[in-house]
User: Fold this.
Amino acid sequence: MSENKPIALEAYELLAESFDRLAPSKAENAYIEQPAMRKAVGEVRGLKIFEAGCGPGILAEYLIHEGAKVVGYDVSPKMIELAKKRNQKNAMFFVADGAIPLPLDTSHNGQFDMVVASLAIDYIKDWSIPLAEFHRLLKPKGKFIFTIQHPLGSWNWYKPECAFGVQYVEATWKGFNQEPVVMPDYYRSFEEVINPLINAGFKIKKIEDLKPIDALRTLDPFKFGKFSKLASFMCVIVEKE
Ligand SMILES: C[S@@+](CC[C@H](N)C(=O)[O-])C[C@H]1O[C@@H](n2cnc3c(N)ncnc32)[C@H](O)[C@@H]1O
Assistant:
């Protein structure tokens, strides 16, 4: 672990079981983020995929079902336990803090066709280390595909004092647990999303402001309306140059 404790570790240890249970059907995940990520990864049969901040292995389950092999890590031991339970074949999971170099030696360099991260790297202030790690693990032309909080949605939700740079923020989550949980996070401006990717040697292929899929319209008209007006998440696809 890093000298500085990962900001979201405690909160995700508290939320792991309810996240595992609810994220497969929760509006923000199941009707916005997960469909976007599944579309962005495309055909994955035969691919070796590395997943950062894998949580309870929901994306991994999809990727494995579609014919990929997955290696994933998360800072939360409880999340890793759940990811292992959910995915018993064609997967390997380990506990690690993504803010510091990963416990993967140089024999792993260039071994992965794709790196993915769903709503996970938001919790790391300085992206230079994780991005350098993903870059070294990817094959040439390999893609890093990730979702994060959209800077505008994040600005609106967290109301940080300043819209520039990377700002520590907190919010009380009531949707996952019976008891509300205070979730620390980082707000990042657009340049703090894009420039670290360029500096790490990635070429930007696509950025998408995520909207809910149509199925949410009847299921939850309020959230459908809300998230159709202001993007809560964005999906970014970059390629190792
Ligand atoms: C919103 S959850 C997303 C989980 C999963 N990717 C999904 O979409 O179902 C964020 C995840 O990031 C993990 N995380 C937060 N900080 C991390 C860090 N420094 N290193 C690795 N994982 C981290 C949390 O433990 C949690 O599992």
Remarks:
- The chain has a mean pLDDT of 96.
- The two ends are 30 Å apart (CA to CA).
- Residues 5 and 97 are 9 Å apart (CA to CA).
